[in-house]
Amino acid sequence: MPENNENGSLVKDCLKLGFGMMRLPRQGKGSMYDPIDVEQTKKMADAFLNAGGRYFDTAFVYEGSEEAVKQALCDRYPRDAYYLASKLNASAFACSNKEEARAEFKTSLERTGCGYFDFYLLHALDHENLHLYNDYGIWEYAQELKEKGLVKHVGFSFHDTPEVLDRILTEHPEAEFVQLQINYSDWEDGGVQSKGCYETAVKHGKPVIVMEPVKGGLLANPPEPVKKIFAEADPKASPASWAVRFAASLGNVMIVLSGMSNEAQMADNLSYMKDFRKLSPSETKTVEDARTALAGIEKIPCTSCHYCTKGCPVEMHIPEIFSVMNVYKLYGDLDKAKSDYGWKAGKTKASACVQCGQCEGACPQHLPIISLLKETAETLE
User: Fold this and answer.
1) Among 299, 198, 205, residue whose Cα is nearest residue 249
2) HSE-up of 288 (CA within 13 Å, CB side)?
3) What is d(CA 318, CA 312) in angstroms, rounded to the nearest whole number?
4) Counting CB atoms within 10 angstroms of each CB, which of 73, 107, 152, 247 has the fewest?
5) Measured between alpha carbons, how far is residue 316 from residues 274, 339, 379 in Å?
6) pLDDT tens-digit series, residues 137-154
7) Which among 85, 159, 74, 158 is positioned nearest to 120, based on CA atoms?
8) SS3 string of 219-278?
9) Non-local CB neighbours of 352 within 8 Å, separated by 6+ positions
């Protein structure tokens, strides 16, 4: 029998595929600043619901998304026809104080017109912003919303180490689920640590919602050695299908979100997720071979230990900068690399290196960091 969503504690009668609404189709040139193509979004929502999908994911900080959800979904379907998730972001770029943070919920409710959220998430937790969610009392606020029936289930999305995740789940057992970045590329990556984070969620008995199963679209068009491996195993299957099915085959995964940007992507995802089957042993071996091929492509062997940053006089985010450069080396997408570099590097770009050598003396991998930063600046700035 085909397997859709067998983790029925929080979602029922639902494909294991979720419609991630962060990268909706745009009008004009398709940039994130162009208006969302609501008519195409309606067609995508219709196709998704007709195939048995029910889980839609948006957020307060997704530009235009919540308004599009209202037009494409909430105004057109009965409320019990779908699950809707949104998120509250307490980071400094989204709000300035407790009042503004808490006001995000009301704004999201008004934008969507959905009446309540089935799933409500504290958004993008990590060790740097965690104190804001605590200081603003967002954990308690989310529980208040749940008690009022405005939220059905409370959880959080997460971008950090398994150790930080373990701390959060230990301190907040009331979290009902966790949303993690999981894909075959990041599964054993020293920076993202998808496998370790997943295993931590399993240890705490929390169902997992997967984000970035196709790594922001990069695994839909992987390097040629990876494409060849997949094509030889199944010439009819898209590279994206291997990535999504890998995540969906994990036993504790409740929903796999796919940030679909057009009708073609929706059709492709539904073609294999409507009657989803877990990866077979031979298919699992194929994905492992693809991961090995990715690992064999030359890149900066940074392990993100951050020893290099502790004494940096310009406070440069060196591992984060190298992670962006590695994505470029792997996938060759210069536009995406420059876009990611713009925010991951923060205020200090690679060109700000003063060549003091402190980082190279601290690096356990003995990397030529100064020359690598110079290469990065020449490539991405």
Assistant:
1) 198
2) 7
3) 9
4) 107
5) 46, 18, 17
6) 999 999 999 999 999 999
7) 85
8) HHCCCHHHHHHHHHHCCCCCHHHHHHHHHHCCCCEEEEEECCCCHHHHHHHHHHHCCCCC
9) 314, 316
pLDDT of residue 332: 87
User: HSE (CB half, 13 Å, CA atoms) of 61?
Assistant: 14
Mean pLDDT score of the chain: 93
Name the one residue in this structure whose structure tokens are 């420059």.
338
Residues in the chain: 381
Return the structure tokens found at 3: 């397997």
Average confidence (pLDDT) over 323-338? 90
- In the chain, list all ranges with CATH 3.20.20.100: 17-290
**The model's pTM:** 0.85
Q: Give percent of the chain above pLDDT 70.
A: 97
CATH code of the domain occupying 17-290: 3.20.20.100
Please, is 333 exposed, middle or buried when counting C-beta atoms within 10 Å of its C-beta (0-12, 13-18, 19+)? middle
Whole-number pLDDT of residue 31 = 66
Query: Which are the contacts of 231, defined by CB distance < 8 A and separation ≥ 6?
Result: none
